[in-house]
Amino acid sequence: MTTISEPGTAGLAATEPAPASLPGATEEGRCCVPSGTPAMSADRAEELAKQFKAVADPNRLRLVSLISASAANEACVCDLTEPLDLGQPTVSHHLKILVDAGILHREKRGVWAYYSLVPGALNSLAGVLIETR
């Protein structure tokens, strides 16, 4: 109990709620109850972070968009430099990061490399964002 000492209120006492009666508190005084749902594994979190980081770059996001919008859902690196106004080495670097992250697939045809979306890769990322428990 706490005594209120303001003028005109001498002798009145205010009670503070017990920890268990606070919103969200349990009888043991803990503030939260474990949900029982297992947390994401460290390996899965690492994999997802790599993928999200890959598409978080504006140029890489535009590359994914250009490839997915192309007629055959694939594009040659030579077709991707002009729309981005970037040099071929820079575009190739961005494409490598997207391939390493599992977002794009690379197929070598002669001297050129063609890139396509890995089926389900973007849907998998979107699913993580809208997942409900």
Protein described:
There is one protein chain. By secondary structure, the chain is α+β, with helices and mostly antiparallel strands. The protein has two domains: 1-33, no CATH class; 42-130, Arc Repressor Mutant, subunit A. It has five helices and five strands, in the order ββααβααββα. Strands 3-5-4 form a three-stranded antiparallel sheet. β4 (104-109) and β5 (112-117) form a beta hairpin. The radius of gyration is 28 Å and the shape is elongated. The model has no long low-confidence stretch (mean pLDDT 79).
CATH topology of the largest domain: Arc Repressor Mutant, subunit A
Order of helices and strands: EEHHEHHEEH
Number of domains: 2
Level of helix content?
40-55%
CATH class of the largest domain: Mainly Alpha
Strand content: 5-15%
Structural class: alpha+beta
Over all CA atoms, what is the radius of gyration?
28 Å
Q: What name goes with the CATH superfamily of the largest domain?
A: Winged helix-like DNA-binding domain superfamily/Winged helix DNA-binding domain
Specify the overall morphology. Answer: elongated
- Please state the average pLDDT score: 79
Give the number of DSSP strands. Answer: 5
**Biggest sheet architecture:** 3 strands, antiparallel
Number of helices: 5
**Biggest sheet, strands in spatial order?**
3-5-4
Stretches with pLDDT under 50, minimum 5 residues: none
CATH architecture of the largest domain: Orthogonal Bundle
The span between the termini is: 41 Å
